[in-house]
Amino acid sequence: MFSDVGGLEILTLIVMAIIIFGPDKLPKLIQDTMSFIRKVRSFADNAKEDIRSELGPEFKDFEFEDLNPKTFVRKQLMGDQQDPLGLKDMKESLDIRSVLDDKPAVAVNGRAGSVGFDKPAPAPASTGAPLQPGERPPFDPDAT
């Protein structure tokens, strides 16, 4: 939340607070602010506990952080500690630096080489004999 605030900004805020409120009122203001933050946190914790107790024992593992959409999607796709879709293997096997540096890629699943964007060759047709000139192809109404 405050990761983009630098030391100069913090120093400026401190100097402005001393100028605006004065050195005699500033400790009382800080104390009042901290007590307000403690009250808000205790209110939120009590509300969370009330909600958990009302939900019942089937929601004992419920975490309010799971309501965040990013966390919810990550938990549903990745599982708790599992990787059912194999996303971790794909992340580990994808080596962008080798592609950008034009170095050969590391072998993945027994195949070495670089990443290519060429279309694969079409698979040979394995259905019956070739059509004669003027012959209509078979029609499958379920396929259309």
Automatic annotation (TrEMBL):
One Pfam family matching this protein: TatA_B_E
Chain residue ranges for the region called Disordered: 111-144
Localization terms from the record: Cell membrane; Membrane
Chief site of localization: membrane
Keyword tags: Cell membrane, Membrane, Protein transport, Translocation, Transmembrane, Transmembrane helix, Transport
Entries under InterPro entries matching the protein: TatA/B/E (IPR003369), TatB (IPR018448)
UniProt topology in membrane: Single-pass membrane protein
Membrane-traversing stretches: 6-22
Biological role: Part of the twin-arginine translocation (Tat) system that transports large folded proteins containing a characteristic twin-arginine motif in their signal peptide across membranes. Together with TatC, TatB is part of a receptor directly interacting with Tat signal peptides. TatB may form an oligomeric binding site that transiently accommodates folded Tat precursor proteins before their translocation.
Quaternary organization: The Tat system comprises two distinct complexes: a TatABC complex, containing multiple copies of TatA, TatB and TatC subunits, and a separate TatA complex, containing only TatA subunits. Substrates initially bind to the TatABC complex, which probably triggers association of the separate TatA complex to form the active translocon.
NCBIfam families to which the protein is assigned, alphabetical: PRK01371.1-4 (NF002377)
Family according to the record: Belongs to the TatB family.
Protein name: Sec-independent protein translocase protein TatB
